[in-house]
Amino acid sequence: MSTQSIRHAGGTTAPTVREPALVAIPFLKTTGSGPVQLLSDAQRQQLVRSATVRHFPARTIVYRTGSPSDSVFVIGEGVVKSYRDLASGRRRIAAFLFARDLFGLAEAGHYVNTVETITPVRAYEISVEALTELFQREPGIELQFLCKLVHVLRESQHHAIIIGRRDAVGRLAMLLRMLQKQSLQGGRKDIALPMSRSDIANYLGMSLEAVSRASRRLELQGMVEFVGRHEVRILDRQRFEALAAAA
Amino acid sequence: MSTQSIRHAGGTTAPTVREPALVAIPFLKTTGSGPVQLLSDAQRQQLVRSATVRHFPARTIVYRTGSPSDSVFVIGEGVVKSYRDLASGRRRIAAFLFARDLFGLAEAGHYVNTVETITPVRAYEISVEALTELFQREPGIELQFLCKLVHVLRESQHHAIIIGRRDAVGRLAMLLRMLQKQSLQGGRKDIALPMSRSDIANYLGMSLEAVSRASRRLELQGMVEFVGRHEVRILDRQRFEALAAAA
DNA sequence: CGTCGTATTGAGGAGGCTCAACTAAGGTGG
DNA sequence: CCACCTTAGTTGAGCCTCCTCAATACGACG
User: Which whole-number Å values give the CA distances from A141 to A37, A41, B23, B135, B143, in the listed order?
Assistant: First the structure.
């Protein structure tokens, strides 16, 4: 934890502040059903005053399961994984988190999961104390965080559905579709796979050999094409969607 | 939906109001680490003014996936299941919900899951409109709902861990431990199983035959004893806990 | 006491896990 | 710049568990 640089976020910022930003699909009916920016400029400016910008290299542990939970984090740039190591020796990745995502899930003052960076990460750290105080002053901000939480809950339930599938290729397809949405939001055409095969296996609840074989099969069936180990291209969108949707 | 009675919650209530109540383990450090009542008397009274008491018989659908989400519900008494039917014909139960639990998860103005009662249920229905308005006036109430959401999110992640286990008996043991906590909160010594084997199977992500066999094995190993089909008694707490914890 | 839905038990087959060997890639030091 | 070394990923063989299909037992209710 001593390698990342620390800088205060206030002070030198220009009048328009783009971060910290939160993105989610609202629970209320809106124009369009896709994800939207939750925070207004004014709200971001209020948040940034309570925040500290932190930079983490790849493969850095941000916090560990069970350690005291002082802060929550909003990702500005980069990818992290949130996981728990189980008594059986297995590791369960609960979520991959990207720009504009929130992490810092706690129970009784302690973090529930371990969070580790996959890529270099820039994140906004906000102390729980400051945040709850801000919630008192600005219920509007609190409502946006609540909205984000609802979104994360839906994603968690979706994850449970993925894991529940019996077929390895189907599970992989569902993950790829998730990552595709991420990549599209980032403006990429192909799907970025920043995480390792082992991470994917731990997310999908299977062995990394099974991930490898499932990848192979998807490719042999002509649905996708792997470009190196960290990029995938959809070739047959029709069949791919059918497979992913056949939960 | 025409069989349940409707009654306004205000009006005839005594000065002390015990419901609607919400229970959760707070994310902040507290005395003890167990679940606590989130709402103060004053907060309950404010909520009850915006709420309608509804009664549902057993096996009643409260709402369906995709229907417009006008309200959230707080359970006063009874048990419900929240599920989705998948394209494959399988059903995935996302959660069993009990007294003092919250349901009504929505996305873009539509309910995500179908909710159906298992036992007769008394619930407080609160319109989303009234609730968000109340959140504006009373950020303290909003914070308690946020706290409950965090709790539910942890439970959802726990569910994903359960489903991820390979061994049927271990999965069943984890569910039984969850239900045991519920039963203890309700003051019962033995574990109540209000739901069917099929429900259990759909929650654990396996076939109901596998549930049956796993139950049998738990019993043969002397860990538990089934008293009828809807009650279980733990006989060997030691081994039972070890099995459930060996995620 | 019969009947229908729920639950249990059995046999056979498919899929993923484990163990193990091998290949590819990336990083380091000479 | 290349050889080496370490880590990550792929491929193969055998086993084990759970799923599927099918038949039987139980139990709640009329």
Answer: 12, 11, 24, 11, 11
| Residues B176-217 pLDDT 10s | 999 999 999 988 999 999 999 999 999 999 999 999 999 999
State which protein residues have CB closer than 7 Å to strand D. Answer: A 166, 196-198, 208-209, 211-213, 215-216, 226, 229; B 166-169, 205-207, 209-210, 228-229
Instruction: Measure Cα distances from A31 to A21, A91, A119, A148, B226 in Å.
Output: 20, 40, 34, 18, 52
Sheet holding A231-234, edge to edge: A191-192, A231-234, A224-226
**How far, in Å, are A38, A88, B37 from residue B102 at the CA level?**
23, 32, 13
* Contact residues, chain B, for A68 at CB < 8 Å: 29
Contact check, Cβ <8 Å, B87/A246: yes
The conformation of residue A22, written as its DSSP 8-state character, comes to -
Sequence-separated (6 or more) residues with CB below 8 Å from residue A221: A239
Per-residue pLDDT tens for B58-113? 999 999 999 999 999 999 999 999 999 999 999 999 999 999 999 999 999 999 99
Q: A198 CA, C18 C1': separation in Å?
A: 16
Chain C: bases < 7 Å from a protein Cβ: 6-11, 15-20, 25-26
Asked if A61 contacts A115 with a C-beta cutoff of 8 angstroms, the reply is yes
Residue A150 to residue B105, Cβ atoms within 8 A: yes
